[in-house]
Amino acid sequence: MAVVLLYLYTSCKIVRYSSVNSGLVFAYFIYCILSIQGYFYNGMPVSIYMSEISTQILPIIFFFIPFNKRINRELFYGTFMIAIAFAIILGLYYYIYNPPAYVQYMLKSVSDSYEGNIGNTIIRFNSLFGSIIMGTLSLFMLIILIDKFWNRKFLSITKSLLLLLLYTITLVSIFLTAQRSAMVLAVFCIAFMYICSIIYWNKVKVSFTLFNIIFYAIVVTVVITSFQEYFDFLSKRLESVDTAFEERDSQWIETFQHSKNFIFGTGLGSAGHRAMPFTNYFIADGGLFKLTAELGTIGMSLFLFILLKFMLSKIKYFPELFREYLIVFVCLLQSVGSNTIVFQQVLPVFWFSLGSIASYYKIKKI
Fold it and tell me: What H or E segment, with its residue span, contains residue 215?
């Protein structure tokens, strides 16, 4: 696989100024592949590693796509929005009507151990991907929609109404998933948009602000008066945000203490869900800690160096890359207490956004 990836990398028409950036990610790519060395001593089947290749390694290819200047970034994000909008609408239908086939699907695919009983799992909005992934994907969509409101000087009435409709169902999706990090970060992203509007534009879009005020007033009133049981469930989830680390830190500490190779790691996949039948020490929540255990301090240091280099070197283009910066930021922040950074459905958008930051430049007018 390393040979094939080397061919793909060297055959890509990547402009010279970006070769260092893409080379760093390619080095991380190869390091992840070579982490198979951990399976010589971790006592686990190599099949775990092989399954992680498609989950974590292959999506990194999306990082290189924006380096081709013929790629339309707006088309990528637009296609993503259509797909997630379809998933939300279909998920809402399943959530409201609970057709027997969907209930059976949920019983087979959703583990009831996450919330302690299947009742709490069913009450959360899962759609086609599960509540954790759906919360993150909906959060990405919210960021893309916020960017369209903030970064566009003019929107037609028809397009504005369509975007507001998508904005509404996206917020509904985020809060129905009951993902604590997704709900908190959704509020943060909206507030951050207003802060950036004042800093960069010295004004706030009044129409969008009024819509938010009216929308939240209606939603809060309806939920409190008509859905008291769900409101109580949601309140408990939000109240437990400050205890999220306490619920998880023991598994992080125990996994690191019993690591057989903390420097180079014990191999991709060796500290995640797939390793549960073979070890007592694994990280079920906390993607960044999971990657640290699997890739070691060297692998995680390389990953963090890549992130810091790209995001700091392009910070002067933040207004143009508002969407990409927020997507990368919220994904990393969620990955402290959730496995967001290792989900196959999430990683393509993460890596494409990071690649868009790394490859971005402005042509100076002469």
Answer: helix 206-226
CB-based contact 323:144 (threshold 8 Å): yes
Give the number of other Cβ atoms within 10 Å of residue 333's Cβ.
Answer: 16
For residue 43, give every residue at least 6 positions away whose Cβ sits within 8 Å of its Cβ, in sequence order, or none. 278, 279
The more confident residue out of 253 and 9 is 253
Q: State the Cα–Cα distance between residues 96 and 94, nearest whole angstrom.
A: 6
Q: How far apart are CA 146 and CA 309, in angstroms?
A: 26
CA–CA dist 215, 323 (Å, integer): 23
- Tell me the torsion sign for CA atoms 162, 166, 167, 169: positive
- Stated pTM of the model: 0.86
Side-chain half-sphere of 225: how many Cα atoms within 13 Å? 6
Tokens standing for residue 90: 């279909």
Q: What is the pLDDT of residues 3-18, one digit of tens each?
A: 554 555 555 544 444 4
Cα 80 to Cα 127, 258, 352, distances in angstroms = 16, 40, 12
- Give whole-number Cα distances, 169 to 2, 57, 64, 92, in Å: 42, 32, 32, 9
Nearest to 265 by CA among 241, 288, 244, 293: 293
Rounded to the nearest 5°, which phi and psi values hold at 16? Answer: -60, -40
